[in-house]
Structure formats: C-alpha cells, structure tokens
Amino acid sequence: MTPVVYDNLSRGNREAVQWGPLEIGDIADTKRLREVLLHYRPAALMHFAAFTYVGESVADPLLYYRNNVAGTAALLQAVMNFKPLPVVFSSTAAVYGMPQTVPIPEDHPRNPINPYGFSKLAVEHMLFDLRASHRLPFIALRYFNAAGADPDGRIGEMHDPETHLIPLVLIAARQGTAVKIFGTDYGTPDGTCLRDYVHVVDIADAHVRALDHLFGGGESCALNLANAQGHSVKEVIAAAERVVGHPIRIELAARRPGDPAALVGNSKRARETLGWTPSRSALDIQIADAWNWLRGAELAKWHGPARA
Questions:
Q1: Do residues 140 and 223 touch, judged by C-beta distance below 8 A?
Q2: Residues 6 or more apart from 250 whose CB is under 8 A from it?
Q3: Residue 223 DSSP SS3
Q4: Nearest CA to 4 among 27, 21, 25?
Q5: What SS3 class is residue 88?
Q6: Stronger pLDDT, 215 or 162, i.e. the higher one
Q7: How far is it, in rounded angstroms, from Cα 234 to Cα 157?
Q8: Can you give the pTM of this predicted structure?
Q9: Is residue 227 situated within a structural domain?
Q10: What confidence score (pLDDT) does residue 161 get?
Q11: Residue 308 pLDDT class (50, 70, 90 cuts)
Q12: Cβ partners under 8 Å of residue 146, min gap 6
C-alpha cells in the first residue's frame, strides 16, 4: 500500500515526503480534494492536517477553529461524498485539560483549556457523530508527547518556531545556549513538570495497527498513545547530557500559566485493542535518535553551526 500525502506545505516540509507522491492542496479546498480522491481512490484516510501550537491558539483562536475544525469538516465532507473511508485521526492528550487522575485513562473528563485542545475535541465529536449517522469507521489516537526521530536519520522534527522540550534541549546542547526550565516548585519528585514521551516510530506503528483494526471491522474508538511513564524536565536534560556527552546550560524561569504538574497517559486500551507495544520507550533512545537527526547535515541550515 503506497501512501499519498496531501498537504498545502504551509507548515509541512516537502523533504519529509519520501515514501509516495505528494499532492499540493488545502483541506478546505473540496474541489481539489475530490480531484485527488478520484485520481488515487484511497482505501483509507490518515488525518494529520492541523495547527498545533498551544500559545498561538490562545493568541489567535479563530485561526485554529478555521483550520482545524472548519478545515476538517470540509475534508470529511469530501470523503463522505467519495465514500465513507476508514479514518485514523491524529488527536491529542490536550483534549483532557488539567488531569484529575494520573495516569489519564480514555474515559477521563475532556475539558480542554486552550483552543488547540478544543479544536481537536471538536473533530473527535465530528467523527463519533459521523459514525452514528453514516457508519464512518474511525480511530482517534490521542498522542501524549511525541518525541525522537527516524532511527535511520531520514526525517525528524523541523518546527519553526520550535516549542518541544527535547529538541529545545538538544538545540541548546548544539549551540552552547541555555534551555529554560519553567517552574521548579511543582509537586513532583524534583519540582519540575512530568511528561509522557512517546517515540514517533511507536506512534507510526500504532497508526498502521489502527488501520488494520478498522480494515478488519474493529470498533471505532479513541485511544491514548502513551508510555504510561512520566519524565521530568530535569530528567530529560540529564538524559540529553548523557547522550551528547557534555553538560547543558539551564536557565530557571517562572511557571507558565496552564502547565499541569504531570501529564501521563494510561495506554492499556491501545495495547489491548491494537496489540500495540512501544519498542523505543526508553528516554535515552528517544533523545539519541533526535540528536542523531539534529546533527545531520540536512538540519544544519535550521539551527546553525554545531557547538565546538
């Protein structure tokens, strides 16, 4: 099965498309979507097209509702006009908001605290409603903190601006700058936030398993993608120091509003439903893969010269 990538490249990277054709288009362009659907006649849809910066969503909520919600409605309308394809949707743990229990199960109350989280939850509601009205099969995969890179170094994170902790720590290690720690007084073992990091290879594996589940007539549902283990900011920095082989400068800063002390997922349902077992869950492996990618010549243009 050959993947066909449909992207407007407003925030994507052409170089990341390496395993099939690329079709340029916007998810809100139903005419262009119909052309692509009729040309390739796909067997399923994997939906990753969304804006994902929490801070940006707070500053410009309509941008997120227009792209993530209205854009998805247009995409799903085009799909339904073609035929009700199985859908695997890239959702997020941000749908839960401030956790009441940790690890967080799928039946935890969903109370997002930012427009990004609300936009993803709105799409989940669309999918459940289309399942009820038109028998559209789907799985929504709620990622916790995606991390790592392709172990072979072919693709990795290329965000601009970068907001994820692990690449920020590694960029600081590479350039000799300081990485900020936002808050050291949380009720966690070392006072810094705990997050659940999941390797992108394991996330990709879950998507393939989700497709197989739907192709086999499996039930539509939402599932957490998590390692069910939290690592603090200080633990991430210490692991990065082991990987890069030298100390990394830090800068202490005040807490950021809305940052929960701990976000850790319960992944039992994904393991039972999909037979999914993360293979690269160790933090040092995730950081080593990200470091190998960052050091590659392809990314030198993004983050400047390496630290001497």
A1: yes
A2: 178, 179, 180, 181, 237
A3: strand
A4: 21
A5: strand
A6: 215
A7: 21
A8: 0.92
A9: yes
A10: 80
A11: very low
A12: 164, 197, 198, 200, 203
Q: Is residue 58 part of a domain?
A: yes
Structure tokens, 5: 């990538």
Q: In angstroms, rounded to a whole number, what is the distance separating the alpha carbons of residues 109 and 117?
A: 13
What pLDDT is stored for residue 295 in this prediction? 85
Q: How far apart are CA 40 and CA 88, in angstroms?
A: 18
Asked if residue 258 is part of any domain, the answer here is yes
d(CA 168, CA 196): 17
Number of domains composing the chain: 1
| Residues in a beta bridge with 199 | 147
Q: Per the domain annotation, does 308 fall within a domain? A: no
Give, for 87, the enclosing helix (H) or strand (E).
strand 87-92
The H or E element containing residue 169 is helix 165-175
Write the pLDDT tens digit of every residue in 134-156: 999 999 999 999 999 999 888 88
Kindly provide the residue ranges of all beta strands, DSSP E only, lying in 4-93, ordered along the sequence.
Answer: 5-7, 22-24, 45-47, 87-92
Range of the domain at 204: 5-303
- Per the CB < 8 A criterion, the answer to whether 79 and 241 are in contact is no
Contact by Cβ (8 Å): 4, 42? yes
Q: What is the CATH number of the domain that holds 216?
A: 3.40.50.720
The residues carrying an active-site annotation are 116
Q: Are 281 and 148 in contact (CB under 8 A)?
A: no
